[in-house]
Amino acid sequence: MKIIDIFKREWPGLAEQMVKWTPCGIGRIRVRLKNRLEVVFTYYDDETWSLETNKFNWSLKTNKKRR
Predict the structure, then answer these.
(1) How many helices (H) and strands (E) does the chain have?
(2) Which residues make beta-bridge pairs with 43?
(3) pLDDT digit string (tens) for 38-60?
(4) Which domain of life is it from (predicted)?
(5) Closest Cα to residue 1, out of 41, 57, 61?
(6) What are the strands, taking DSSP E only, across the chain?
(7) Which of 28, 35, 45, 54 has fewest C-beta within 10 Å?
(8) Rounded distance, CA 66 to CA 47, Å?
């Protein structure tokens, strides 16, 4: 995944360090983006990654006049 590659490039070794100090061997990093979307990167001790997002309400505001 491209976003995971960007994350690994920007913060090298962070997930590996989290796994080292976590008893279960899983590192989780939560990032909150500007649009209130949360992205959770999960790094496992076998060097695999997963990516999750929260359920974000994408409803758009409209400029309709109220009657």
Answers:
(1) 2, 3
(2) 27, 49
(3) 777 777 767 676 766 665 433 33
(4) Bacteria
(5) 41
(6) 26-32, 38-44, 49-53
(7) 35
(8) 54
Among 51, 61, 58, 67, smallest CA distance to 3 is for 51
What's the half-sphere exposure (Cβ side, CA atoms, 13 Å) at 44?
Answer: 5
Amino acid at 34: K
pLDDT tens digits, one per residue of 13-37: 766 666 666 666 666 767 676 666 6
Pairing, β 26-32 against β 49-53: unpaired
pTM here is 0.38
* Residue in this structure with the two tokens 């100090």, named with its chain if needed: 21
d(CA 5, CA 56): 23
